[in-house]
Amino acid sequence: MGPADVDRRNLIKRATALGLLAAPAMGALTSCASGGGGGNEKISGGEKTDQNPLGVNEKAGLEVVIFNGGYGEQYAKDAHKIYEGRYGSVKHDATQKIRTTLQPRIIKGNPPDVINNSGAEAMDIASLIAEEQAEPLDALLDAPTLDDPDTKIRDVLVPGTITKGQFGGEEMYQLNYSFTVYGTWYSQTALDRLEVEYPKTWDQMLAVCAKAKKEGIAGWTYAGKHPYYFAFTMYPFIAKIGGPDVLKAIDNLEPGAWKHDAVRKAFDAYYELYAKGYILEGTPGIDHTQSQTQWNKGKALFIPNGSWVENEAKKTTPADFEMRVAPPTSLDSSDAMPFETVWAEASEPFMVPSRAKNVPGGMEWLRIMLGKESTANFTQLVSALTCVKGAADGLDLQSGLASASEVLKAAGENVVAPRIHDWYLELHKDKIGGTIAAMMAGDIKPAEAVTRCQRFADETAKDDSVRKYER
């Protein structure tokens, strides 16, 4: 067996382990591998100084790939200018197809230096870590901030940011840059026209949807092609009904977790939206952009989403829309957690591939992103909070972001942050998301949805090829 055959075999082995290699693509990927070449040659680092704490080679170039989604790419281009003021030039690329664009490069060993691993085509970070494709970011955490040499990066991050980037150990592999508030988004203007308030109980929700229906307005729409968006309201709804330990059991793949009474009640409640005709017609076949556009047009009152939506939907949002977010509507007074309970967490993940040419440069770019200039720029450009404490203080916030900040403040300690979407991406997005999609389209009843979710979770728990996590 020659060197090319060995390379080909190792390539296929790595791709399969990462869950990156689909059967139809195998021929193309293996033919690329057998051609020789590929792989990054590490550049030598620079001298570590007070001004260059990570030891960046000041002449070396840097490559950054950004997910061009709800936050766009301008904030990154602005950070490039700061980087280039002291170091080498930055090669920038932006795409919505992170996995399609980058998985062949990761498999071949020549990834970019920074990846904004986000969107519907995000790569499975847990698998990348297991295959030693992601660089630990602890050197970044222990570096001084750009603005205060006596303060470490780790000391300015919002609580939970470091934990969110850890996967079964003490090392942080992923920097979740934005701080996202998930919930039920709506137009205050639309509610005012109906002369209703945001519903705090499910009976109130059904009453508001019924009134909207009489006016030719749907109660809800959602990203039917990306049904995991429903988790943004469904997961905290489950926690409200049954308490935070229900989500903990789901995260830990505990037997019977999805059969908890809180899950059944949540599924029954959401299914009632379908059964009563409160879902915008055609919703199961549209994506996030299309659903947001229909919502902006006043075709539906409510949409499950995250706080990136204000920037992502700004081109179609009317000037008088008055975008707002609220915690998911409670079931009733028997709920274990208060109405103010919300899902909020550090999000929008960035990683530095371990086989990148310029690992120190990649970390330095992230250090720049965590500086005051970049965090303020990000918030003002895309109407989103960052993972840096107090970074938005004193800034003039748009209506949606101001609302998100108020919701987060009102929640206090009642903030939940499930991990299933980080730890078990396929289970969360495709299997659980697909099951909820089928239920909301009326293809299955809530009881069957519960059964399917539990079966999929059990299959994942028994799959020895999937690394398990626990909280």
From TrEMBL:
SUPFAM superfamilies in UniProt: Periplasmic binding protein-like II
Where does it localize? Cell envelope
An example GO CC term for this entry is:
cell envelope
Q: Tell me one Pfam family matched here.
A: SBP_bac_1
Where the protein is mainly located, per its record?
other
**Matches recorded under InterPro entries:** Bact_solute-bd_prot1, Chitin_NgcE, SBP
Keywords, comma-separated and alphabetical: Signal, Transport
Q: Out of the domains of life, which is the source?
A: Bacteria
- Write down the PANTHER family for this protein, in alphabetical order: ARABINOSE-BINDING PROTEIN-RELATED (PTHR43649), SN-GLYCEROL-3-PHOSPHATE-BINDING PERIPLASMIC PROTEIN UGPB (PTHR43649:SF31)
Protein family according to the UniProt entry: Belongs to the bacterial solute-binding protein 1 family.
Which NCBIfam families would you find in this protein's record? chitin_NgcE
Q: What is this protein called?
A: Carbohydrate ABC transporter, N-acetylglucosamine/diacetylchitobiose-binding protein
Say which species the protein is native to.
Answer: Streptomyces chumphonensis
The gene is: ngcE
